[in-house]
Amino acid sequence: xxxxxxxxxxxxxxxxxxxxxxxxxxxxxxxxxxxxxxxxxxxxxxxxxxxxxxxxxxxxxxxxxxxxxxxxxxxxxxxxxxxxxxxxxxxxxxxxxxxxxxxxxxxxxxxxxxxxxxxxxxxxxxxxxxxxxxxxxxxxxxxxxxxxxxxxxxxxxxxxxxxxxxxxxxxxxxxxxxxxxxxxxxxxxxxxxxxxx
Length: 197
Hints:
With 197 residues, this protein is an alpha+beta fold. It is built from two helices and eleven strands. Helices cover 15% and strands 29% of the residues.
């Protein structure tokens, strides 16, 4: 009987020692796994009204597509006419060195004649009425024939060869180059709603 009692005491001591070793022994510190930086959104992953473009990689000369508000009392908005998308964003070129914004409105008039396969240029209008050609491309350099809308995918590249004469009037002389997609801005915060009793 004593032998059984001694064995039970030894067995309890071994179990207690094992328990203490498992819970009180120092553990090796695992190195945190480095997280990959968040991949910036591609132009196609961003809506046109959130896209920001830089002129030839120069952040002092940017382009944004700003939604044109619907007229007061309008319940619907035309999205397509004669098989082409109707643009509803202004092209706003910002020159930070002069704190200057040049706003170009979409010119949604297109010729109604001609072959369907003929590539038509899209146009925007300056405040003085001058038409500016706009050539837009996706990330794979495929041509986008229609003007963007606020909720469509943003073009990756925007080329406006007729923009420079408008900027020369403001003493800005730059060679014609493309605006390249730089980033996707966060959507604006929804206005807070309050309940009144």
